[in-house]
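Shipment paperwork, digital attachment
Item: protein structure file
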Amino acid sequence: MAVDDKSAIGRVAAQLIQPGQVVFIDGGTTSAQLVRHLPWDLQATVITHSPSVAVELSTHPGVEVIMLGGRLFKHSVVGVGSATVEAIRQVRADVYFMGVCSVHPEAGLSTGDFEEACVKRALSAAAAETIVLASPEKLATASPYQVIPLDELSGLVTMASVSEEILAPYRKRGISIHLA
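Attachment content:
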């Protein structure tokens, strides 16, 4: 996906965060774009298992950052494992912004690593809403390890260039679509 697409998706996702919320933000390059687009006057708490996201927010004056520990999964530069999952279980977040490999109408949300899927599943379970950040090439695809079924997804942020034919199954399931 082009950097411009990731930036546009991040900009739209950042607008969905309300002052005072407790927000889980996943790792990945699109999540990094989300935090770069947070309003400078936003007062919120961001909880992340991504050192990159935490560092990006280190100079944001109104965002409290809470890091989740665990074993560093170098491929995605995020914490994984039982320590990460246990820390997640101690939190009730308003919203979770998930980065994922694949979003499929029947297979749901999935990724290519078993432990990463477990952490994403725990983050989703501990949040009132889950919103996925998905570039067009991730839609209508499936990866080996399911994170959550599509019915557990609240919203989807993707590009306006995605055809209505591809978006229709998600709309039909009642998922809010936010186009960048």
